[in-house]
Amino acid sequence: MGIAYGFKGNYDKEIECYQKAININPDCADAYCNMGVAYGDKGKYDKEIECYQKAININPDDAESYCNMGIAYGFKGNYDKEIECYQKAININQDYTDAYCNMGIAYRKKGNYDKAIECYQEAINISPDYADAYYNMGNANVEKENYDKMIECYQKAINKNLADAYLANAYYFMGYIYVKKGYYDKAIECYQKAINKNLADAYLADAYYSIGYIYILKDNMDKSIEYCKIAARLGNKKAQNILSKVGISW
Predict the structure, then answer these.
(1) For the whole model, what pTM was predicted?
(2) How many angstroms separate the CA atoms of 131 and 58, rounded?
């Protein structure tokens, strides 16, 4: 019943159900683990960690609780403790791909991109179709300015059915790099795919502007104006300046 309340977003009722289960069986590690997830959904990370620790006290081999505890420490910005928890999860379950991938993300947040890539590779070695690991490896290569490798990783993630939540971003950053490399048709294709995949508002205006700018480079002013108008209406200052200079309203 607690899980059902969680799906409905009623985390207080969810927690109440898990507490009732614990009152009946104080040694129910799963109830503590699920309660921790619910507290995490409420943003109460200290309570979340406390629940996972209780689950681990009951079952020291609870790799999932260690992994979830790592995520909670990550939200608190304590990346060293986050990594420590993932390592404990991996010590229990050496095939725990999510723990390897999450550890990679923690190392990336610490600026250790080589260690991050190493963790993603471990996840891929265990699960060669792990799209999220390829995507995150691409992100780490962005930070290293290894753009060819970034494109390669993003493309592998896309080929392995990367979740829609990340797909638009992958196409957007591929488009950005293709512009830098002078591959304008490929850039337009990627930006358009990003837009079609519901690209986040933070990048949407820039994607339209970038397509418009590419069409300027390709001497196609009609298409450039079409995309710059959309970008300008979305608040992109560069597109607004271009249109203002030629006396076109948006």
Answers:
(1) 0.87
(2) 34
